[in-house]
Amino acid sequence: MRICMPQSGLSLVLTIPLGILLLILASRPAAAETPGDRDAAQASADVSVSLREVLASWFSAPEVVAVSRGPYLQSGTPTSIIVKWNTTLPADSVVRYGSAPGNLTESAGSADLSTEHEITLSGLAPETAYYYSVGSSSQVLAGDDADHRFVTSPVVGTARPTRIWVLGDSGTANANAVAVADAYRSYASDRPADLWMMLGDNAYTSGTQSQYQAAVFDIYPDVLRTAVLWPTLGNHDGISADSATQSGPYYDIFSLPKAGEAGGLASGTEAYYAFDYGNIHFICLDSQETDRSPGGAMLTWAAADIAQTTQDWIIAFWHHPPYSKGSHDSDTEGKLVQMRENALPILEAAGVDLVLSGHSHSYERSFLLHGHYGASDTLSDAMKVDDGNGREGEDGAYKAVYDEQNPYRGAVYVTAGSSGKISGGPLDHPVMVHASLNVLGSMVLDVEGNRLDARFIRSDGSVADAFTILKIPDNCPSLANPAQTDTDGDALGDACDSDDDNDGLDDGFENSIGTNPLLPDSDGDGLSDFAEVSYDGDSSAYNPVSDLNPLATDTDGDGIADNIDLSPHGDGDLAPLGSPNGLLNLGDYLVMQRILTGHIAATALELEHGDLYPVGAPDGKIDISDLLQMRALLGW
Fold first, then answer.
1. Nearest to residue 148, comparing CAs of 101, 182, 102?
2. Taking the C-alpha atoms of 303, 309, 311 and 313 in order, what is their torsion angle to the nearest 10 degrees?
3. Does residue 13 carry a pLDDT above 70?
4. Helix (H/G/I), strand (E/B), else coil: 381
């Protein structure tokens, strides 16, 4: 070390290794003590200690502010998102954000000093990518690069391709959890999730802060900083958390919407909540600590929330599965029984499509089911909306139909609690298809328009199960219409649409004259069926003489269908596109009729060869007398 010592107005610089100096100071030999010497020795020792402390402070590394957790994203909406992170020392909070790394032109922050930082970004544009950094007013601690990026949600109700990653009982913080996460990363490398969900038991064994750090923040840092995480409380999380007071690590770590700020009705608590993403409504329940009775606050709220949503899809999730024969038994365990008996009737009455749970450390997946609220041995055929495997190319996709004759679409129930451990069980619940597996993995859901594709990804990256649900919109509520096609795209199903091809002709009328009510141009001649049938100005009836035939072509384009045109190749005397042949025939008569009714204008050729009055001496006009004389000449 270098020490500057004053000497006659100058500085004497001594270079002494710090360790040697401290050793010298600590090991100076003691002289023979006298009473006076003891006071001097104590004073000398005090000076040595003070000097050691001063020197140590000079050369110890100063504490600096650094990120110790995160950043991670919470409670995303089309126009806002919460960014959270922790630091090693208290500091103020600033999030800088913008359209590209190096162009973070906007910021939001708080002047309060804290080690736990939470900043809400608002006024954002929907479906927009933002890059961001976190730090303080004086420095950036993390971000401002391609790895710190999020995309805001679509406008509520807007159908957009959406990917969701689902983890259940993932909180083991071991090689199992890492393998499951890595398998997802590989599977979704070209299309990461837009949002992700945890189905409880997110941090074993008791959901402490250190266990969350190891099980969540150390394993999924890349996903946490790019996609919003939506969790639910498990029994192990609940050991250190309390839903009644919304306290403990679970509630400290997660910021969840309780005022309806992310969609749905306000629940007033973070224990259970709702949110929207695009055309999907999510409802999260607390099966661990909150009252599960039908008249309790949670299920009363759930009934009101799910009844008011107009979203195309409804996905519900909580920890304890309503159906399972894995490491837990839904026939005998109270919380599982109560969620099945009390929550499912509410959700199914409102058309829930998919229910996700964990707790049993296995993967179990039902067929399309409705109305099974008792023990497993009470399942009946009437409850099986579709007992196939839901796979296109095999038993076929599940078709969730909704109409007055069949007001319940049916739902698929998944127990996916094997993202961190597997624990066996018989796996023989009768509502489950042959996809119950004692294997590690996670789920990927892809929703696009009226289609949901679900896949269970093993920890080795292979797809162990897949199914598809097709939603058929209720655009014909007055009639039973299981097909629910909408040929003309007018948002009115064919079963209750009187004009399926939107050509202006009633389907019944088109059927009566032999035209196809689903094809607006049956003969492919470029004229709609409606235009051909309405040729004489009356669309209520088809006149084979004055109207065009919507089922036949018109080769010469004279307005006469080939099947009644005696000169379909244009050699009739009056054919506008043909050459006169000196013969009066039906084609000539029909063309004259159209001229007289104002449907077409007479050409010079038609005046010359169609003017029959007086016979043989054209007068330059075609009138009714010409038509009458032609009828006479034709022998009519």
1. 101
2. 0
3. no
4. helix
